[in-house]
């Protein structure tokens, strides 16, 4: 079976962790099928030089990065059309020597909608994986109409959460074609490690209660609520933020909130970290916190659980599907400081056994996830 996978969000030399969960699923999937990857790159004259196609290998996956026309901040409802128009010539050229049986789109926008247009032109079935982007599109009438059309035409829809699956059905997707398959975890990297050793390695205080949040610093990740929550907790509770600036959130905005809340000395900004160090931060923590306003299937939750570290997370995306309560943590409403504070207080006052947290969790390997995905593909092609 030949599968051509598309994802605008995919690791690159500049940002090796961007869309790493897409890479991990595709890498595991490549063991079952003949796979090629297309990660289109937005291009706008005067901002990004050239329009050439870049081919390469990313950690064992053959990947092509054709350009598509992209207008910053304006005409955003046309992104998917520009996406399809820009990369269709490259896809047609590929088909002369390698004919895909399925087009596999990650994210509904712009990938899913763009790929649906390409598939219609080629007469090839397509599959869309739904992640948190769908909820953002549902706020924009033109985009939601395009998303609905793409979902209706898909031969299968893979959703990383039950909530996203329900949203797809509301938009007209055939329930019989939807499969809920949450993300997996790289168990070779994310596993139980000695807490004291990790704190020493990372230079973190050994005498504090440490909360860790692994997420970019954008406002929708809920960092401001976490900072306000720890202001109401004991003085020995501190927060470590692992992630870089994004979507208007910077070190300065975070520390301004910390100073305003009177906890500036209790907030540690670790910045973006190499992938292999992120696991050490989870293992160094007493608990991890994810206070996001929206998510698809948050890998930060799965990776924390794989490290045996309990989680306090807001009730978004696949959190209810992947976080057992109270066996591995607590779920709280989003955008509410008081319930978040109480959830953190509960998790810090409980004595957790890392092995029990891992055993209670619903963490699966990427190989298990890939097997389920390829079974969906087999149904599509009639194998």
From TrEMBL:
InterPro entries assigned: Glyco_trans_1, Glyco_trans_4-like_N, Glycosyltransferase_grp1
Every Glycosyl transferase family domain range: 195-360
Keywords on record: Transferase
Coiled-coil positions: none
Domain of life of the native organism: Bacteria
Keyword DNA-binding belongs to the record: no
Pfam families in the cross-refs: Glyco_transf_4 (PF13439), Glycos_transf_1 (PF00534)
Keyword Transferase: yes
Residue span(s) of domain Glycosyltransferase subfamily 4-like N-terminal: 74-188
Molecular function terms, GO-annotated: glycosyltransferase activity
PANTHER family: SULFOQUINOVOSYL TRANSFERASE SQD2, TEICHURONIC ACID BIOSYNTHESIS GLYCOSYLTRANSFERASE TUAC-RELATED
This protein's name: Glycosyltransferase
């Amino acid at each position: 079976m030949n599968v051509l996978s598309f994802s605008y969000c995919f690791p690159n030399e500049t940002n090796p962790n961007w869309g790493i969960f897409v890479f991990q699923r595709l890498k595991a999937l490549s063991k079952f099928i003949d796979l090629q990857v297309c990660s289109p790159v937005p291009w706008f004259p005067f901002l990004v030089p050239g329009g050439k196609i870049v081919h390469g290998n990313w950690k064992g996956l053959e990947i092509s990065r054709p350009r598509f026309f992209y207008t910053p901040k304006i005409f955003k409802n046309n992104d998917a059309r520009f996406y399809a128009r820009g990369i269709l010539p490259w896809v047609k050229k590929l088909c002369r020597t390698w004919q895909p049986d399925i087009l596999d789109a990650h994210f509904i926008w712009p990938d899913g909608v763009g790929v649906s247009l390409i598939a219609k032109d080629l007469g090839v079935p397509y599959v869309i994986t739904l992640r948190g982007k769908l909820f953002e599109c549902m706020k924009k009438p033109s985009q939601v109409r395009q998303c609905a059309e793409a979902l209706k035409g898909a031969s299968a829809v893979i959703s990383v959460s039950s909530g996203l699956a329900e949203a797809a059905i509301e938009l007209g997707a055939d329930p019989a074609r939807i499969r809920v398959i949450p993300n997996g975890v790289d168990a070779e990297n994310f596993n139980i490690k000695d807490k004291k050793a990790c704190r020493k390695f990372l230079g973190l205080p050994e005498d504090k209660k440490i909360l860790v949040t692994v997420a970019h610093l954008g406002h929708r990740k809920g960092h401001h609520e976490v900072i306000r929550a720890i202001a109401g907790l004991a003085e020995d509770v501190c927060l470590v933020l692992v992630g870089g600036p994004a979507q208007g959130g910077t070190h300065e905005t975070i520390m301004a909130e910390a100073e305003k809340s009177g906890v500036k000395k209790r907030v540690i900004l670790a910045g973006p970290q190499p992938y292999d160090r992120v696991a050490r931060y989870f293992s160094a923590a007493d608990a991890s916190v994810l206070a996001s306003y929206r998510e698809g299937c948050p890998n930060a939750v799965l990776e924390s659980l794989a490290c045996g570290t309990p989680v306090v997370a807001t009730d978004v995306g696949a959190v209810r599907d992947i976080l057992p309560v109270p066996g591995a943590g607590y779920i709280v409403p989003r955008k509410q400081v008081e319930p978040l504070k109480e959830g953190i207080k509960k998790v810090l006052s409980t004595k957790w056994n890392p092995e029990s947290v891992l055993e209670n969790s619903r963490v699966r390997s990427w190989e298990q996830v890939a097997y389920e995905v390829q079974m969906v593909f087999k149904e599509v092609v009639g194998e």
